[in-house]
Write a structure and sequence with these properties.
The chain is α+β, with helices and mostly antiparallel strands. The chain has two domains: about 110 residues, Ubiquitin-like (UB roll), CATH 3.10.20.30; about 130 residues, Alpha-helical ferredoxin (Fumarate Reductase Iron-sulfur Protein, Chain B, domain 2, Orthogonal Bundle), CATH 1.10.1060. A five-stranded mixed β-sheet has the order 2-1-5-3-4. The chain has a two-stranded antiparallel sheet with strand order 6-7. Strand 1 and strand 2 form a beta hairpin. The radius of gyration is 20 Å and the shape is elongated.
């Protein structure tokens, strides 16, 4: 395939960025999106030009670092995949592909397509932990029965990889889906009830402090989430927050 790439180039957070056009040839349908960018960068390096900076790590859909806005969609046109799992067969010969970083005030651009998502880390640090000793004592494992439905829902919430697609998809740049997933994975289990009150209050307060917007209620976050995190988690977090607020 021959493609035209329009890629956001920005030297640093204080510099003005712009879309630059790069033609690319020889793209195979079985290539991943990141492999295609590797080919582009190899060509740029061979020509003595500065390669495009983009974030990646595992390339297995686990780490969440490969967060790109592709033709206006977080992680591109496929569903339930990260950018590293997006294959070029989703595009056609001659297509123009616009590639940008995730856009949010709380995700400042570091360089080119890389953004600083440490705001997510600070939200988790505000309350995403438990004090119960879970060091693997098999005797204790059977002393607190956990409803199967609750266990499954907790596990589903815990699959959130913190990529930030929910923020990039939301017109208000809301982090409600991310924060609610981190609240839910503990709120649904008895081990998480000890810090439940302070957890939701502290994590929501930190979320607001970081500059994320409020939930837009459009549901774009769930649609674009590569792990399919449910909006039910936001409703659960709202209930947890109301209960915690009433407790004072």
């Amino acid at each position: 395939m021959k493609l035209t790439l329009k890629i956001w180039r920005q030297k640093d957070n204080k510099s003005k960025g712009e879309l630059k056009t790069y033609p690319i040839d020889g793209v195979e349908g079985d290539m991943s999106f990141l492999e295609m960018l590797d080919v582009l960068n190899e060509g740029l390096i061979n020509k003595g030009e500065e390669p495009v900076v983009f974030d990646h790590d595992c390339r297995e859909g686990i780490c969440g670092s490969c967060s790109l806005q592709i033709n206006g969609e977080p992680h591109g046109p496929d569903r339930l995949v990260t950018t590293c799992q997006l294959h070029m067969r989703m595009f056609n010969d001659g297509d123009t592909i616009v590639i940008e970083p995730f856009r949010a005030k709380a995700f400042p651009v570091i360089k080119d397509l890389v953004v600083d998502r440490s705001a997510f880390d600070r939200i988790q640090q505000a309350g995403g932990y438990i004090s119960v000793n879970t060091s693997g004592n098999t005797i204790d494992a059977n002393t607190i029965p956990v409803n199967k439905h609750d266990a499954d829902e907790s596990f589903n919430a815990a699959t959130c990889i913190g990529c930030g697609a929910c923020v990039a998809a939301c017109k208000n740049a809301s982090a409600m889906l991310f924060t609610s997933a981190k609240v839910s994975q503990f709120a649904l289990l008895p081990q998480g009830r000890i810090e439940a009150t302070e957890r939701v209050l502290n994590m929501v307060a930190q979320m607001d402090k970081e500059g994320f917007g409020n939930c837009s209620n459009t549901g774009a976050c769930e649609i674009e989430c590569p792990k399919g995190i449910s909006l039910e988690n936001i409703a659960r977090m709202n209930r947890e927050y109301l209960s915690a607020s009433l407790k004072g």
